[in-house]
Amino acid sequence: MRIITLTTDLGLKDHYVASLKGQLLSQIQGGNIVDISHDVQPFNLSEAAYYINNVLEDFPEGTIHFIGVDHLPFISIASAENNLYPIVMKLKGQYFVGCDNGLFSLINGYEEAEEIIRIDNFSAKSALRFPTRNIYIPTIVALSEGKKLADIGEPVKSIRKAFTPQPIIETDLIKGAVIHKDKYGNVIINITEKLFNEVGMGNPFTIYFKSTEYFIEKISSNYYDVAPGEKLALFNDSGFLEIAINKGVQGSGGGAASLLGLEVKDLIRVEFHPKGSKNNIEDLFVKEE
Questions:
Q1: Domains and CATH numbers, the chain
Q2: DSSP character at residue 253
Q3: Cα distance from N-terminal residue to C-terminal residue, the chain
Q4: Predicted pLDDT of residue 288
């Protein structure tokens, strides 16, 4: 039984996802289709990569991941340097099918890919009009049948690169940014627990948001460390800093995004306070234990 995951920006309002699944199920006997997300913001490569990276370790070898985000190929003899080819990447025994638009470079560990091929077994003029039906689905079917990548396309050594905002590190300071907002209104920051510990070295800290009237000075272990409706910071299962409101969903006071006015790309500051550096006289006289 082959597992096939779908990550797209198709949404669920229209018939597109059902059509995609119908085509796959019609051609793959015993296929098991898993939806990662169809609510990726249209053409947002960073958001698609965020979803995929959060589940990769949960799937077994042999899983086929279709990434249908900004996945329309572009092939022109006149401007070959701008071509966007359909590709397959094999990484840690799993297969990733999509367009070489930069997204593959955002997948964790892509530098260690075992194989990458450019899909070339199609008639460009007819296939490019409906690439999902004519290029990607036949490729997924071929992989599900156990065909080797060399039989599907031409090996390539490099892929296009895309870049996401990275934290800025200064003395006793990390400047991060919101990279995701989930359905509960929790916001995810591009600051990992590893980076937080390396820069902070166990010193007290203050997490500042866009509005200076809101701040947090403690990392919680779970949501119940604070009362319902109170804000908190914790490191989530993926190791990223998360700002949340305990049970603060719409209809119950609102989540962190709405209550704190946080949106994707907003700046988050983490200021660390080595002894003697805060603006209060008591810290100047803290005795060593």
A1: 3-155 (3.40.50.10790), 168-285 (2.40.30.90)
A2: T
A3: 60
A4: 47
